[in-house]
UniProtKB/TrEMBL annotation:
InterPro entries: RHF-like, RHF/RaiA. It comes from the Bacteria. The gene is raiA. CDD domains: RaiA. NCBIfam families: yfiA (TIGR00741). It holds the Pfam family Ribosomal_S30AE. This is Ribosome-associated translation inhibitor RaiA. It comes from Flavobacterium cheonanense.
Length: 100
């Protein structure tokens, strides 16, 4: 799957990009018709410890899924986002299966 990683106002290191690619590739196990995904990484300027924001947008035929998570680290936010997307994709797959 093609994964576009966009970092807003900072540069992202290769290790984080590889981690994101790995987690997004695992989603294909749940729903194999994923076209591509866009991952937006943002750092909010607040005194709050949970200032890392990850938005993941997944493109599937006929629909798009958007998940936004805010955590202490980007890795944790990507992990939570992918878990949410797993549930969404499984639900979509079951919905399609019942309509056939």
């Amino acid at each position: 799957m093609k994964v576009n990683v966009n970092a807003v106002n900072f540069t992202v290191d290769r290790k984080l990009i590889d981690f994101i690619q790995l987690r997004m590739d695992k989603l294909e196990k749940y729903y194999d018709k994923i076209v591509s995904s866009d991952v937006f990484l943002k750092v909010e300027n607040t005194s709050d410890k949970e200032n890392k924001i990850v938005e993941v947008k997944i493109h599937v035929p006929g629909d798009d899924f958007l998940v936004k998570k805010q955590c202490k680290t980007f890795e944790e936010a990507v992990e939570l986002s992918s878990e949410s997307l797993e549930r969404l994709l499984v639900k979509r797959k079951e919905k399609i299966r019942t309509h056939i």
